[in-house]
Every structure is written in C-alpha cells, then in structure tokens.
Write a structure and sequence with these properties.
This protein has 176 residues and is mostly helical. Helices cover 60% and strands 9% of the residues. It has eight helices and two strands, in the order ααααααββαα. The chain has a two-stranded antiparallel sheet. Helix 1 runs parallel beside helix 3, helix 4 crosses helix 5 and helix 4 packs across helix 6. The chain is elongated.
C-alpha cells in the first residue's frame, strides 16, 4: 500500500523531473524497497531511496545516448548553472562555441535534442525589446555529466566526423 503522503512525494519528484515515466519508476522502486524492508506500507524514506536509484538510472541512460558534441553542450550548460551564471541561449552558445566550434543552428539542434530527452527545459522570455530562450538544467542532470571548467583551455571536444558532419562544417565555414 502507498499512503497519500508517499504518493504525493512521488508526484512532486516526477513533476520536478518533467517526465511521468520517472514517477512510475519511482513508485515501483519504492514498493520494492518497502517489500525488502518487510513492511506493507511505503514511507517517505522508501520514496527517497527510490529517487536515488531511479534518477541515477534514468539520467545515466539519457546522457549515454548523447553524441560528444551534445555532451559538450550539456556539460557547459550544467557547469554554468552550478556557478549561478545566466543560462540564456546566447550566453550558453558563446560558452559552448569557445570549446566546441559550431554554428548557432547546430547548437540549437543539439539543444532541442537535450530538451526532447528531458535533460533540459527551455522557455521563451522577454529581454529588453526582444525575446530570449532561457535554458534550465533539470533536477539531477548536473550530477550525471562531467563538468567543464569555467576557464576552459579552449581545446575542442571533437568526435569522429561523419559524412554529414563534414559537409555541414564545410558549408558553415565556407571551405571546400
């Protein structure tokens, strides 16, 4: 049995992650934890134990699915968020392109993929006369990626380039 207080905790954690599958996994893991403890009713401690297990598994799988350039974007973004820096799309693009040269279009495509994998959330907001996109790293994601130092050496985080990447790079740089 899962009392309402424990169920509310599961719901709050799932909403914080932005993914209902996380809530289902938490509920299952909390019940398993309760059964292993020899009890018939789940407690808040069971849910918290389930949070640690489910978060790690879910985020690790999401981060493993990323390409090296996507990982670079997420690492830079998580580092900026940890340091309390502004994480608008323009600021993050500047920081990312300092270590991984890419066009804004490629950066935006990678950002959309991170959003689709529920690793980040983006939202439009007004800034002066225009608009900007604010990027928020979802709860626990920062712990799942390797940090990129604030004063990076500028060394590019390169991956083996595929044919499409070569063509895009040639188009972006204007080199034949």
């Amino acid at each position: 049995m899962v009392p309402p207080a424990a169920l509310d905790l599961v719901v709050r954690r799932a909403v914080a992650c932005g993914d209902s599958r996380v809530g289902l996994g938490l509920l299952k893991e909390a019940v398993l934890h309760t059964e292993r403890a020899g009890r018939t009713a789940a407690e808040a401690g069971d849910v918290e134990a389930a949070v640690a297990v489910a978060r790690h598994a879910h985020l690790a799988a999401g981060v493993r699915a990323l390409t090296p350039p996507e990982t670079a974007v997420l690492s830079v973004l998580a580092g900026m968020a940890r340091r309390g820096e502004e994480t608008t799309s323009g600021r993050v693009y500047e920081a990312v392109s300092a270590i991984e040269p890419m066009s804004y279009m490629m950066f935006f495509e990678r950002l959309e993929r991170l959003d689709a994998l529920h690793l980040v959330a983006t939202r439009q907001r007004r800034k002066g006369q225009g608009r900007t996109r604010e990027i928020v790293v979802r709860e626990g994601v920062g712990d799942a990626v390797a940090p990129v130092p604030a004063a990076s050496s500028g060394t590019s985080v390169k991956c083996p380039a595929g044919v499409a990447d070569d063509e895009k790079r040639r188009y972006e740089t204007g080199h034949e």
